[in-house]
Amino acid sequence: MADETPDTLDTFTWTEIGVGDLDRAATFYGSVFGWQIEPFGDDYRIATCRGQQVAGLYRWQVPLPDGVRVYVSVADLEAALTRVERAGGTVEHGRTVIAPEMGWWADFRDVDGTLIGMTTANPER
């Protein structure tokens, strides 16, 4: 989790993704984003990227409806969407412009059906 500083107060500093199967989700997110996933108790996993904690995975009791949407920044949106499909997820919306000066977004469903977004400032390669 991010340390609290004046720059991080009142901003999103942590994301938790509810999943049905922790091991399957760890494999999925590791394949898509290269995250390292470590256990944190019986029903929780911590995801790290380049040595920084980026998210928690928790075992849900019942599947959650699409509620809070989270977005992961990626360098190559199309390559990330390809990794989603190879890992067993499905692309819901491909590259879509946010605004010319803001970049693009896409979203996908993971192996448990959770909706996750991705953003990039980079044009299509």
Give the percentage of residues in beta strands: 35-45%
CA-CA gap between termini:
32 Å
Helicity, as a percent range: 10-25%
Secondary-structure element order, N to C = EHEEEEHEEE
Q: Per the principal axes of the C-alpha atoms, what is the gross shape?
A: globular
Q: Unreliable stretches, pLDDT < 50, 5 or more residues? A: none
| Integer average pLDDT | 85
**CATH T-level topology:** 2,3-Dihydroxybiphenyl 1,2-Dioxygenase, domain 1
Number of domains: 1
Please list the strands of the largest sheet in the order they lie side by side. Answer: 1-4-3-2
CATH architecture annotation name = Roll
**CATH top-level class:** Alpha Beta
Radius of gyration of CA atoms, rounded to a whole number? 15 Å
How many runs of DSSP E, i.e. beta strands?
Answer: 8
CATH homologous superfamily identity: 2,3-Dihydroxybiphenyl 1,2-Dioxygenase, domain 1
Q: Biggest sheet: strands, sense, closure?
A: 4 strands, mixed
Structural class: alpha/beta
Count the helices. How many?
2
